[in-house]
Amino acid sequence: MENLPTALASLIDWGWLRIGPYIHINIDPAILHIGSLKMTWYGLMYVVAIVMALWGISRYTARKGITQDQVYRVLWWCIVAGLVGGRLYFVVQQPDLVTGYLEQPWRILATWEGGMAFFGAIFLIVPVLFWRSLRERVNPFVMLDAGALFAAIGQPFGRIGNLINGDIIGYPSNLPWATVYDNPNSWACLNPATCHVPVQPSAGYELLLNLLLIALLLFLAQRYRRPGALMATYLFSYCITQFLVFFVRANIVVPLGPLDWGLKQAQWTALITFLLLIPITVIAMRSRFARPVPAGEVPATYGVPQKPTPTVQEKEEEITTDEENGSGGETRPEDDEQAIQPANVGADSNAADEQGATEAAES
Across all residues in the chain, what is the average pLDDT? Predict the structure, then answer.
Protein backbone atom coordinates (compact mmCIF):
# COMPACT_ATOMS: atom_id res chain seq x y z
CA MET A 1 0.00 0.00 0.00
CA GLU A 2 2.87 2.38 0.70
CA ASN A 3 4.04 2.06 -2.91
CA LEU A 4 0.57 2.68 -4.35
CA PRO A 5 0.84 6.50 -4.67
CA THR A 6 4.24 6.18 -6.29
CA ALA A 7 2.97 3.50 -8.67
CA LEU A 8 -0.02 5.61 -9.67
CA ALA A 9 2.16 8.67 -10.10
CA SER A 10 4.54 6.77 -12.36
CA LEU A 11 1.67 6.02 -14.74
CA ILE A 12 2.05 9.56 -16.13
CA ASP A 13 5.23 9.58 -18.15
CA TRP A 14 4.63 11.24 -21.51
CA GLY A 15 8.15 12.44 -22.12
CA TRP A 16 7.27 16.12 -21.99
CA LEU A 17 5.45 15.62 -18.65
CA ARG A 18 6.29 13.14 -15.91
CA ILE A 19 4.81 12.91 -12.43
CA GLY A 20 6.83 11.07 -9.84
CA PRO A 21 8.02 11.96 -7.36
CA TYR A 22 7.65 15.58 -8.54
CA ILE A 23 6.09 17.25 -11.59
CA HIS A 24 8.76 17.11 -14.30
CA ILE A 25 8.36 19.43 -17.29
CA ASN A 26 10.50 18.69 -20.33
CA ILE A 27 9.25 21.14 -22.97
CA ASP A 28 11.36 23.34 -25.21
CA PRO A 29 10.07 26.93 -24.88
CA ALA A 30 10.37 27.23 -28.68
CA ILE A 31 7.73 25.42 -30.74
CA LEU A 32 9.73 25.71 -33.96
CA HIS A 33 12.71 27.53 -35.44
CA ILE A 34 12.71 29.31 -38.81
CA GLY A 35 16.26 30.40 -39.43
CA SER A 36 17.20 32.80 -36.66
CA LEU A 37 13.53 33.30 -35.76
CA LYS A 38 11.58 31.09 -33.41
CA MET A 39 7.96 30.66 -32.44
CA THR A 40 7.54 30.25 -28.69
CA TRP A 41 4.87 28.72 -26.53
CA TYR A 42 4.75 31.93 -24.51
CA GLY A 43 3.99 33.99 -27.63
CA LEU A 44 1.35 31.49 -28.68
CA MET A 45 -0.25 31.74 -25.24
CA TYR A 46 -0.51 35.52 -25.70
CA VAL A 47 -2.50 34.99 -28.89
CA VAL A 48 -4.70 32.34 -27.27
CA ALA A 49 -5.24 34.64 -24.28
CA ILE A 50 -6.47 37.50 -26.49
CA VAL A 51 -8.80 35.26 -28.49
CA MET A 52 -10.27 33.58 -25.42
CA ALA A 53 -10.63 36.86 -23.54
CA LEU A 54 -12.49 38.41 -26.48
CA TRP A 55 -14.83 35.44 -26.52
CA GLY A 56 -15.20 35.56 -22.74
CA ILE A 57 -16.32 39.21 -22.62
CA SER A 58 -18.54 39.14 -25.72
CA ARG A 59 -21.79 38.62 -23.79
CA TYR A 60 -20.80 41.15 -21.14
CA THR A 61 -20.01 43.90 -23.66
CA ALA A 62 -23.21 43.18 -25.61
CA ARG A 63 -25.22 43.42 -22.40
CA LYS A 64 -23.58 46.73 -21.57
CA GLY A 65 -24.19 48.21 -25.02
CA ILE A 66 -20.59 48.14 -26.30
CA THR A 67 -20.45 47.13 -29.97
CA GLN A 68 -17.92 44.66 -31.34
CA ASP A 69 -16.48 47.39 -33.57
CA GLN A 70 -15.82 49.53 -30.52
CA VAL A 71 -14.20 46.61 -28.73
CA TYR A 72 -11.80 45.96 -31.61
CA ARG A 73 -10.97 49.63 -32.11
CA VAL A 74 -10.01 49.94 -28.45
CA LEU A 75 -8.30 46.53 -28.31
CA TRP A 76 -5.38 47.37 -30.58
CA TRP A 77 -4.54 50.47 -28.58
CA CYS A 78 -4.57 48.41 -25.38
CA ILE A 79 -2.36 45.67 -26.82
CA VAL A 80 0.29 48.22 -27.76
CA ALA A 81 -0.04 49.99 -24.40
CA GLY A 82 0.24 46.67 -22.56
CA LEU A 83 3.38 45.61 -24.40
CA VAL A 84 5.06 48.99 -24.02
CA GLY A 85 4.05 49.49 -20.38
CA GLY A 86 4.87 45.93 -19.36
CA ARG A 87 8.29 46.01 -20.98
CA LEU A 88 9.29 49.47 -19.73
CA TYR A 89 8.28 48.73 -16.15
CA PHE A 90 10.34 45.53 -16.25
CA VAL A 91 13.35 47.45 -17.57
CA VAL A 92 13.28 50.21 -14.95
CA GLN A 93 13.31 47.60 -12.18
CA GLN A 94 16.52 45.93 -13.34
CA PRO A 95 19.65 46.40 -11.21
CA ASP A 96 21.69 46.87 -14.43
CA LEU A 97 19.32 49.53 -15.79
CA VAL A 98 22.12 51.94 -16.75
CA THR A 99 24.74 49.54 -18.09
CA GLY A 100 22.37 46.92 -19.40
CA TYR A 101 19.67 49.07 -21.00
CA LEU A 102 20.33 52.82 -21.06
CA GLU A 103 23.80 52.28 -22.50
CA GLN A 104 22.41 49.57 -24.80
CA PRO A 105 18.95 50.97 -25.63
CA TRP A 106 18.26 48.32 -28.29
CA ARG A 107 17.95 45.80 -25.45
CA ILE A 108 14.83 47.62 -24.25
CA LEU A 109 13.05 46.15 -27.28
CA ALA A 110 14.57 42.68 -26.81
CA THR A 111 11.45 41.03 -25.39
CA TRP A 112 12.74 37.67 -26.63
CA GLU A 113 15.29 37.86 -23.80
CA GLY A 114 12.36 37.68 -21.39
CA GLY A 115 10.92 40.27 -19.11
CA MET A 116 7.42 41.72 -18.87
CA ALA A 117 5.89 43.28 -15.76
CA PHE A 118 2.10 43.12 -15.70
CA PHE A 119 1.80 46.04 -13.30
CA GLY A 120 3.45 48.21 -15.96
CA ALA A 121 0.87 47.04 -18.49
CA ILE A 122 -1.92 48.01 -16.08
CA PHE A 123 -0.41 51.45 -15.41
CA LEU A 124 -0.47 52.31 -19.12
CA ILE A 125 -3.57 50.45 -20.30
CA VAL A 126 -5.94 52.10 -17.81
CA PRO A 127 -5.38 55.71 -19.03
CA VAL A 128 -5.30 54.61 -22.68
CA LEU A 129 -8.57 52.71 -22.23
CA PHE A 130 -10.13 55.73 -20.53
CA TRP A 131 -9.04 58.03 -23.36
CA ARG A 132 -10.17 55.75 -26.18
CA SER A 133 -13.54 55.18 -24.49
CA LEU A 134 -14.21 58.91 -24.48
CA ARG A 135 -13.31 59.04 -28.16
CA GLU A 136 -15.81 56.24 -28.78
CA ARG A 137 -18.46 58.11 -26.73
CA VAL A 138 -18.65 55.21 -24.28
CA ASN A 139 -18.69 55.53 -20.50
CA PRO A 140 -15.00 54.88 -19.70
CA PHE A 141 -15.84 53.11 -16.45
CA VAL A 142 -18.04 50.61 -18.30
CA MET A 143 -15.19 49.96 -20.73
CA LEU A 144 -12.73 49.62 -17.85
CA ASP A 145 -14.97 46.99 -16.28
CA ALA A 146 -14.91 45.06 -19.55
CA GLY A 147 -11.13 45.49 -19.61
CA ALA A 148 -10.84 44.02 -16.11
CA LEU A 149 -12.81 40.96 -17.18
CA PHE A 150 -10.69 40.70 -20.34
CA ALA A 151 -7.44 40.78 -18.35
CA ALA A 152 -8.64 38.25 -15.80
CA ILE A 153 -9.74 35.75 -18.48
CA GLY A 154 -6.51 36.12 -20.43
CA GLN A 155 -4.05 35.84 -17.54
CA PRO A 156 -4.29 32.05 -16.91
CA PHE A 157 -3.03 31.41 -20.45
CA GLY A 158 -0.04 33.61 -19.76
CA ARG A 159 0.66 31.56 -16.64
CA ILE A 160 0.58 28.38 -18.74
CA GLY A 161 3.24 29.98 -20.92
CA ASN A 162 5.28 30.73 -17.79
CA LEU A 163 4.98 27.12 -16.64
CA ILE A 164 6.29 25.90 -19.99
CA ASN A 165 9.06 28.51 -20.10
CA GLY A 166 10.26 27.94 -16.57
CA ASP A 167 10.75 31.70 -16.19
CA ILE A 168 8.81 32.04 -12.92
CA ILE A 169 10.84 30.12 -10.36
CA GLY A 170 9.91 29.45 -6.75
CA TYR A 171 12.12 28.49 -3.86
CA PRO A 172 13.48 24.91 -3.71
CA SER A 173 10.86 22.56 -2.31
CA ASN A 174 10.20 18.90 -1.58
CA LEU A 175 6.42 19.18 -1.84
CA PRO A 176 4.78 16.50 -4.01
CA TRP A 177 3.66 19.14 -6.51
CA ALA A 178 7.07 20.83 -6.75
CA THR A 179 8.11 21.49 -10.36
CA VAL A 180 11.30 20.21 -11.98
CA TYR A 181 12.50 21.64 -15.31
CA ASP A 182 14.48 19.11 -17.31
CA ASN A 183 14.67 20.65 -20.77
CA PRO A 184 18.12 22.22 -21.35
CA ASN A 185 16.51 25.11 -23.26
CA SER A 186 14.22 25.97 -20.37
CA TRP A 187 14.69 29.36 -18.73
CA ALA A 188 15.11 27.53 -15.44
CA CYS A 189 18.14 25.70 -16.85
CA LEU A 190 19.92 28.96 -17.63
CA ASN A 191 20.82 28.79 -13.95
CA PRO A 192 22.35 25.44 -12.84
CA ALA A 193 20.92 26.03 -9.37
CA THR A 194 17.34 25.72 -10.68
CA CYS A 195 17.82 23.11 -13.44
CA HIS A 196 16.69 19.56 -12.50
CA VAL A 197 15.85 20.95 -9.06
CA PRO A 198 12.33 20.75 -7.54
CA VAL A 199 11.00 24.26 -6.91
CA GLN A 200 7.73 25.82 -5.83
CA PRO A 201 5.41 26.09 -8.88
CA SER A 202 4.85 29.83 -8.50
CA ALA A 203 3.27 30.16 -11.93
CA GLY A 204 0.88 27.33 -11.01
CA TYR A 205 -0.15 29.15 -7.84
CA GLU A 206 -0.78 32.31 -9.86
CA LEU A 207 -2.84 30.32 -12.36
CA LEU A 208 -5.08 28.98 -9.59
CA LEU A 209 -5.47 32.45 -8.10
CA ASN A 210 -6.35 33.80 -11.56
CA LEU A 211 -9.10 31.20 -11.90
CA LEU A 212 -10.52 32.18 -8.52
CA LEU A 213 -10.44 35.82 -9.56
CA ILE A 214 -12.29 35.04 -12.80
CA ALA A 215 -15.00 33.26 -10.84
CA LEU A 216 -15.30 36.22 -8.46
CA LEU A 217 -15.54 38.79 -11.28
CA LEU A 218 -18.10 36.76 -13.23
CA PHE A 219 -20.21 36.48 -10.09
CA LEU A 220 -20.00 40.21 -9.33
CA ALA A 221 -20.51 41.25 -12.97
CA GLN A 222 -24.12 40.06 -12.69
CA ARG A 223 -24.70 42.10 -9.54
CA TYR A 224 -22.76 45.35 -9.74
CA ARG A 225 -24.82 48.29 -10.97
CA ARG A 226 -22.18 50.98 -10.51
CA PRO A 227 -19.71 51.30 -13.42
CA GLY A 228 -16.06 51.04 -12.35
CA ALA A 229 -16.71 48.74 -9.42
CA LEU A 230 -15.60 45.65 -11.34
CA MET A 231 -12.28 47.23 -12.33
CA ALA A 232 -11.69 48.36 -8.74
CA THR A 233 -12.36 44.82 -7.51
CA TYR A 234 -9.93 43.41 -10.07
CA LEU A 235 -7.15 45.85 -9.20
CA PHE A 236 -7.44 45.34 -5.45
CA SER A 237 -7.59 41.56 -5.90
CA TYR A 238 -4.61 41.50 -8.24
CA CYS A 239 -2.53 43.48 -5.75
CA ILE A 240 -3.41 40.98 -3.01
CA THR A 241 -2.61 37.92 -5.14
CA GLN A 242 0.73 39.33 -6.26
CA PHE A 243 1.70 40.29 -2.73
CA LEU A 244 0.97 36.75 -1.50
CA VAL A 245 2.40 34.67 -4.33
CA PHE A 246 5.75 36.45 -4.31
CA PHE A 247 6.48 35.02 -0.89
CA VAL A 248 7.26 31.73 -2.66
CA ARG A 249 8.94 33.24 -5.72
CA ALA A 250 12.73 33.20 -5.69
CA ASN A 251 13.10 36.88 -6.60
CA ILE A 252 15.59 39.26 -5.06
CA VAL A 253 14.55 40.93 -1.81
CA VAL A 254 14.91 44.71 -2.09
CA PRO A 255 14.49 47.49 0.47
CA LEU A 256 12.38 50.57 -0.19
CA GLY A 257 14.55 53.41 1.04
CA PRO A 258 15.00 52.88 4.78
CA LEU A 259 12.30 50.17 4.84
CA ASP A 260 13.73 46.68 4.71
CA TRP A 261 10.79 44.35 5.27
CA GLY A 262 12.06 41.39 3.29
CA LEU A 263 9.79 42.14 0.32
CA LYS A 264 10.42 41.80 -3.41
CA GLN A 265 10.00 44.55 -5.99
CA ALA A 266 6.56 43.31 -7.10
CA GLN A 267 5.38 43.16 -3.49
CA TRP A 268 6.37 46.78 -2.92
CA THR A 269 4.53 47.68 -6.13
CA ALA A 270 1.46 45.73 -5.04
CA LEU A 271 1.48 47.30 -1.58
CA ILE A 272 1.91 50.87 -2.82
CA THR A 273 -0.66 50.39 -5.59
CA PHE A 274 -3.14 48.94 -3.11
CA LEU A 275 -2.74 51.96 -0.80
CA LEU A 276 -3.05 54.44 -3.67
CA LEU A 277 -6.13 52.67 -5.00
CA ILE A 278 -8.07 53.45 -1.81
CA PRO A 279 -8.33 57.25 -2.32
CA ILE A 280 -8.45 56.87 -6.10
CA THR A 281 -11.43 54.51 -5.83
CA VAL A 282 -13.24 56.81 -3.38
CA ILE A 283 -12.81 59.75 -5.77
CA ALA A 284 -13.68 57.68 -8.86
CA MET A 285 -16.87 56.33 -7.32
CA ARG A 286 -18.05 59.92 -6.86
CA SER A 287 -17.53 60.63 -10.55
CA ARG A 288 -20.45 61.10 -12.91
CA PHE A 289 -19.22 58.05 -14.80
CA ALA A 290 -19.82 55.86 -11.73
CA ARG A 291 -23.49 56.74 -11.27
CA PRO A 292 -25.71 53.66 -10.96
CA VAL A 293 -27.40 52.86 -14.26
CA PRO A 294 -31.21 52.91 -14.04
CA ALA A 295 -33.12 49.93 -15.35
CA GLY A 296 -33.81 50.18 -19.06
CA GLU A 297 -30.85 52.46 -19.78
CA VAL A 298 -27.82 51.40 -21.84
CA PRO A 299 -24.81 51.37 -19.45
CA ALA A 300 -22.24 52.14 -22.15
CA THR A 301 -23.91 55.39 -23.20
CA TYR A 302 -25.80 56.42 -20.06
CA GLY A 303 -24.77 59.95 -19.11
CA VAL A 304 -22.37 60.26 -22.05
CA PRO A 305 -23.26 62.85 -24.75
CA GLN A 306 -23.77 61.18 -28.11
CA LYS A 307 -23.65 62.54 -31.63
CA PRO A 308 -27.00 64.21 -32.44
CA THR A 309 -29.33 61.93 -34.42
CA PRO A 310 -31.14 63.72 -37.29
CA THR A 311 -34.91 63.92 -36.87
CA VAL A 312 -37.37 62.49 -39.42
CA GLN A 313 -38.10 65.99 -40.72
CA GLU A 314 -34.39 66.72 -41.16
CA LYS A 315 -33.95 63.44 -43.04
CA GLU A 316 -36.92 64.27 -45.35
CA GLU A 317 -35.54 67.76 -46.02
CA GLU A 318 -32.15 66.25 -46.83
CA ILE A 319 -33.74 63.79 -49.27
CA THR A 320 -35.75 66.59 -50.92
CA THR A 321 -32.64 68.72 -51.30
CA ASP A 322 -30.75 65.82 -52.85
CA GLU A 323 -33.60 65.22 -55.33
CA GLU A 324 -33.71 68.90 -56.30
CA ASN A 325 -29.97 69.00 -56.81
CA GLY A 326 -30.20 65.81 -58.84
CA SER A 327 -32.95 67.13 -61.18
CA GLY A 328 -31.24 70.49 -61.62
CA GLY A 329 -28.19 68.80 -62.95
CA GLU A 330 -30.05 66.67 -65.55
CA THR A 331 -29.93 67.53 -69.24
CA ARG A 332 -32.70 67.14 -71.80
CA PRO A 333 -32.24 64.66 -74.66
CA GLU A 334 -32.39 67.41 -77.32
CA ASP A 335 -29.66 69.30 -75.49
CA ASP A 336 -27.52 66.21 -75.63
CA GLU A 337 -28.13 65.88 -79.37
CA GLN A 338 -27.08 69.48 -79.94
CA ALA A 339 -24.06 68.99 -77.80
CA ILE A 340 -22.84 66.05 -79.88
CA GLN A 341 -23.81 67.60 -83.29
CA PRO A 342 -20.73 68.23 -85.49
CA ALA A 343 -19.73 71.85 -85.97
CA ASN A 344 -19.89 71.72 -89.77
CA VAL A 345 -23.58 70.79 -89.73
CA GLY A 346 -24.52 74.33 -88.75
CA ALA A 347 -22.08 75.81 -91.26
CA ASP A 348 -23.54 73.81 -94.18
CA SER A 349 -27.08 74.90 -93.29
CA ASN A 350 -26.09 78.58 -93.27
CA ALA A 351 -24.39 78.23 -96.64
CA ALA A 352 -27.49 76.66 -98.16
CA ASP A 353 -29.66 79.52 -96.89
CA GLU A 354 -27.34 82.13 -98.42
CA GLN A 355 -27.32 80.33 -101.76
CA GLY A 356 -31.15 80.23 -101.86
CA ALA A 357 -31.37 83.97 -101.13
CA THR A 358 -28.95 84.79 -103.95
CA GLU A 359 -30.90 82.74 -106.51
CA ALA A 360 -34.13 84.44 -105.48
CA ALA A 361 -32.61 87.90 -105.99
CA GLU A 362 -31.29 87.03 -109.46
CA SER A 363 -34.69 85.82 -110.56
Answer: 85
Question: What's the pLDDT band for 343 if we cut at 50, 70, 90?
Answer: very low
* CB contact at 8 A, 189 and 180: no
Instruction: Answer left, alpha or beta for residue 67, where phi above 0 means left and psi between -120 and 50 means alpha.
Output: beta
CA–CA distance from 337 to each of 102, 333, 340 (Å)?
Answer: 77, 6, 5
Q: What is the pLDDT of residue 307?
A: 78
The residue extents of the domains of the chain are 4-79+116-290
- Round to whole Å and give the CA distance between 89 and 121: 8
Which residues, in sequence order, are bridge partners of residue 32?
Answer: 39
CA dist., res. 208 & res. 220, Å (int): 19
Residue 23: name the closest of 165, 172, 176 by CA.
176
**Range scoring the smallest mean pLDDT among 10-24, 127-141, 242-256:** 10-24
More confident residue, 271 or 351: 271
Distance CA 216, CA 220 (A): 6
Confidence of residue 340 (pLDDT cuts 50, 70, 90): very low
Rounded distance, CA 46 to CA 41, Å? 9
CA dist 347 and 44 (Å) reads: 80
Q: Which of 201, 203, 200, 168 is nearest to 186 (CA)?
A: 168
The answer to whether the predicted template modeling score (pTM) of the entire model surpasses 0.70 is yes
Query: Using CA atoms, how far apart are residues 342 and 363, in angstroms rounded to an integer?
Result: 34
Give the number of other Cβ atoms within 10 Å of residue 240's Cβ.
Answer: 14
**Rounded Cα–Cα distance for residues 211 and 178 (Å):** 20
Distance (Å, whole) CA 241 – CA 231: 15
- Please determine, for residue 64, whether its predicted confidence score (pLDDT) is greater than 80: yes
* Other residues' Cβ atoms within 10 Å of the Cβ of residue 207: 18
